[in-house]
Amino acid sequence: MGGRVTRVFRNFNVENRASREIGKEKPTPAPWHRTARLDAMADSPEIKEEVLRKDDRFLTLLKDVYVESRDPPMRVKDGGGEHLPSKQEEKRLTKLGHLEGLDVKKVPKGKISLVEALTLLNNHKLQPQIWTAEKIAAEYSLELKEVNSLLEFFIPFAVQEFPKETKKAITSHKPKKLT
Hints:
Helices cover 47% and strands 3% of the residues. It is mostly helical. Among the domains are: 37-66, no CATH class; 91-153. The two termini are 43 Å apart.
């Protein structure tokens, strides 16, 4: 609200104020006064001659100076090649089935996509005799140790429904009043 009020006063009669400011005569700047030292140097021929004269003593000293420079040897950084691929990675097509539109199409060997991970975890959960760790490792080009860790530590969600009497017990629970 305060911004609207200040904006009204700020924009009030802005065109007339701007044209009045533009129409004003500009003040003339103060004159630049030349300093005495610069005037003396510019007009004095002795100073000009002293500046332009070559001094033989300084020239001989300058000829005695010998500068030798060497560039330090170039050092190659070890981590510089991380951005460039050193070798072409071998890729495989994903095994997605009906979920093709949800994930990537090609994955490097030794890795799996997110949809593939959920699929193989679900397959192992539903049919552990068929989808063993060895079969999953062979099917998805993974290491057996990694597949065993995956099956041990990652479990897909399980949906559970509560019986109706439990639902009534939960909804009929009244919170205690604090006094």
